Amino acid sequence: MFNVSTDKFLKWKEKQLLKGSDKQSLDLLIDSVGSISKKELNLLKIKSNKTVTLEFTLDSIEFLWNKHIFSSIPIQYLTGVSYWRNLKLEVSNKVLIPRPETELIIDIVLEEFKNKDEKIIFADLGTGSGAISIALALAKPFWNGVATDIDKNAVEIALRNFSNYSNKSNLTFHYGHWWEPIKYLRGKIDLVIANPPYIPQDIYSKLSVEVKDFEPKIALLGGVDGLEHINEIVRHAPLFLKEKGCLLLEHHYDQGDKVKKLFLEYGLTSVRVLKDFSGIGRFTIGRYK
């Protein structure tokens, strides 16, 4: 542990922000590496503490900050840590950095199943870091979940993330393409969630350097129209869902009508497009029969 005066630390922080990027990114770096939360940072100016205790030296944190500024590598990949809901997750450039808007998936699921106390089986397709499946498994320890991903590295990361939070066996991880690893669950799943690659080709080419150059293309690009993987997931959903089973997908901000049409085409009912924090239709949910 390293101690530094509060005054020196705050001056150092101001100096870093003059280099570029933004306060949110610097706060995330300090939290991830220095173990000082955003709340604690905000209280520094009014607290009487004369010293700040860090897990790493200011020089070490500054080295990572400079790397972020000059190379555009996301803070999460530099530190190997991403915060999502109440989780601190391991990440690497093999998995997508979980987004704040995706957190709403958990709230949607908990609301949709609030009156069901019985055990259910859920599947998280394309789990990445495991964020969605882990949050659900922790919130509902009597549910049984399976999570799949086409990248072995992602499966290993997700498994480690779950092991860091639970010693239970109510969530298992499988390597393979979408539904393929869980064929044994045909007709048995109560809930399927997926945040698949949905960025259309023309939009992908215009993404920021931080996203396009560092995050896995396989987790972002959804084909020419962005619906390639969504189409495949929806098409096979009736084979895996129980009667009244639920499918919930995240998609691009302008795909709601098209995804809803797909749901209806493949036999899902009670289909709704739900809005994200910005009031944009970001999620589509429906039931089988």
Number of strands: 11
What portion of residues is helical? 25-40%
Kindly provide the radius of gyration, computed on alpha-carbon positions and rounded to a whole number of angstroms: 21 Å
Sheet-strand content, in percent, reads 15-25%
Relevant CATH superfamily of the largest domain: Vaccinia Virus protein VP39
State the secondary-structure class: alpha/beta
Mean pLDDT: 94
Query: What is the fold named in CATH at topology level of the largest domain?
Result: Rossmann fold
Number of alpha- plus pi-helical segments: 12
* Basic shape: elongated
Order of helices and strands: EHHHEHHEEHEHEHEEHHHEHEE
Number of domains: 2
Low-confidence stretches: none
Main β-sheet description: 7 strands, mixed
N-end to C-end Cα span: 58 Å
CATH class value of the largest domain: Alpha Beta
Task: Summarize the SSE layout with pairings.
Layout lengths: L1 E4 H12 L5 H12 L3 H6 L7 E4 L3 H14 L3 H5 L1 E4 L2 E4 L13 H9 L8 E5 L5 H9 L4 E6 L2 H14 L5 E5 L13 E6 L6 H4 L4 H4 L15 H13 E10 L5 H10 L2 E8 L5 E8 L1
Parallel strand pairs: 5-6, 5-8, 6-7, 8-9
Antiparallel strand pairs: 1-2, 3-4, 9-11, 10-11
Polypeptide structure, described:
The protein is built from twelve helices and eleven strands. With 289 residues, it is of the alpha/beta class. It has two domains: 70 residues, no CATH class; 197 residues, Rossmann fold. A seven-stranded mixed sheet has the order 7-6-5-8-9-11-10, with helices on both faces. It has a two-stranded antiparallel sheet with strand order 1-2. Strands 3-4 form a two-stranded antiparallel ribbon. The chain is elongated, with a radius of gyration of 21 Å. The protein starts with a strand and ends with a strand. The mean pLDDT is 94.
